[in-house]
From TrEMBL:
ABC transporter domain residues: 3-234
The protein, known as: Amino acid/amide ABC transporter ATP-binding protein 2, HAAT family
Gene Ontology BP terms: L-amino acid transport
Family membership: Belongs to the ABC transporter superfamily.
Gene3D superfamilies, sorted: P-loop containing nucleotide triphosphate hydrolases (3.40.50.300)
Keyword Cytoplasm recorded: no
Lineage summary: Bacteria, Pseudomonadati, Pseudomonadota, Alphaproteobacteria, Hyphomicrobiales
Keywords associated with the record: Amino-acid transport, ATP-binding, Nucleotide-binding, Transport
Pfam families: ABC_tran (PF00005)
Function: Involved in beta-(1-->2)glucan export. Transmembrane domains (TMD) form a pore in the inner membrane and the ATP-binding domain (NBD) is responsible for energy generation.
SUPFAM superfamilies on file: P-loop containing nucleoside triphosphate hydrolases (SSF52540)
Amino acid sequence: MMLNVQGLRTGYGRIPILNGISFAVREGEFIGILGHNGMGKTTLLKALMGFLPATGGHVRLDGADLTAAEPFRRARLGLGYVPQGREIFPGLSVHDNLRMGCSKQAGAEQDIIAEVLEEFPRLKRLLDRSGGALSGGEQQLLAIARCLCGKPRLILLDEPTEGIQPSIIDEIVEVLLRLRDYSGLTMILVEQNLDFIAALSKRILIIQKGAITREVQPGDLGDPSLVGEFIGITT
Ligand SMILES: Nc1ncnc2c1ncn2[C@@H]1O[C@H](COP(=O)(O)OP(=O)(O)OP(=O)(O)O)[C@@H](O)[C@H]1O
């Protein structure tokens, strides 16, 4: 297993949010984590990146225990993060946003950006525009592209469809499918958009109140009773 999470606990101050999360991800796998608002999806990704300290359990990457590792060390070992709300730099151009993502390999910056942009024709046309002047969907594409500039091996994606118009959601699906099928990248997607998560994930974990309660296959999400019972949202 590439990533092994065992009994992970964390929270904010003294408020526990993750109550012992366990799952494992194989290299090259695309897994979805589905849960509705407030179930702990963002908290889980922040804990995996080291932005929130674990209060219990373990996180192992390629067998190495990263439970107490600083975020920069996790990034150096290949963890990439596309945060909820994108967090691009609104005052910087698209090109400069991508340069910020390259900080690890300063020397090869232009080559890395050119290579990443091959997957993002829409961004190629927007390189001089400031990040803040992009649409939400374009910002999301930029956030994914910027993450790729850091040459991650495992990417954590936090609700990439949030607040984004359907036509560009389709484009995000296409980009992620190509990455899934041709790049060898490992990806963990947290979402509450059923169609999006089903289109991309090979298997789906359901998160409820800070715990993984069930694993389902993408096809199972067509069953409204299962969806209603385990996820608490209606299709
Ligand atoms: N900084 C914080 N301080 C205290 N509680 C927080 C903080 N951030 C989140 N929480 C709480 O932790 C719980 C889980 O939040 P989290 O953001 O992980 O959920 P989520 O599943 O990602 O939901 P959403 O889809 O709304 O982002 C919620 O009850 C939330 O109110």
